[in-house]
Write a structure and sequence with these properties.
By secondary structure, this protein is mainly α. Helix content is 82%, strand content 2%. The two termini are 33 Å apart. It comes from Paenibacillus etheri.
Amino acid sequence: MSLESEEMSVVDHLTELRKRIIYVLIVFILGLVGGLFCAKPIYDYLISTDLAQGFVLHAFSFWDGIGMYMKIAMAVSLVISVPFIAYQLWAFISPGLRAEERSATLRYVPYVFVLFLIGLSFAYYIVFPMALSFTISITRSMGLEETYGIAQYFNFMFSLVLPLALLFELPLLVMFLTKLRVLNPIRLRKMRRYAYFTLVFIAVVITPPDLISDFLVTIPLLVLYEFSVFLSAFVYRKQLAADAAREEQYTKSED
């Protein structure tokens, strides 16, 4: 391959990548517009739960109400965009895959949405209430008067819920990279201690500064990693079997 053809290939790849990014931005903006229409009923639901009924929320600036609607709209848009982003990623790298790899990895795309919703539900209904209750109990034990702003409440919620929901994509990401032969269970087991350290660090960063919240997020992340290793081993065994069958067929054809 000449230098000119290589340069054209790089240009073609960059052009394709730009096209995929533009598609993602269009879907995200459309999801943002749709999210603005859904913001009011979602907001009404979030503040009508028992969790939010324990205290009065205040607005401390003129932009708090608009800011909350925009945050909710962005969350809705993210839910819509995540599977589409996964599809665009698949579409970008699929020309370099074999036919069976393309069909196999394409099947992962719907599960991106499912895992994101599972992570979202786990974070909102389990981790967020416990983290909020713990921080409030500390505040009250110190005899402090509670005056919570609507912006602080939703910032606390989104900073905890959304990152954890995204981290629930870890098993699918590991399966995808194993299918592309970038990862394998042997490599994942060797890097386990570093992965554990990284996941604990992530849990500490995205949670409030208390031991209970860190623990509630760290344990599921470690379980997700071990589940990812199990799924990687499952995919890897199928790859080895397919490679052996292909080599055997090639040997027979040579004979």
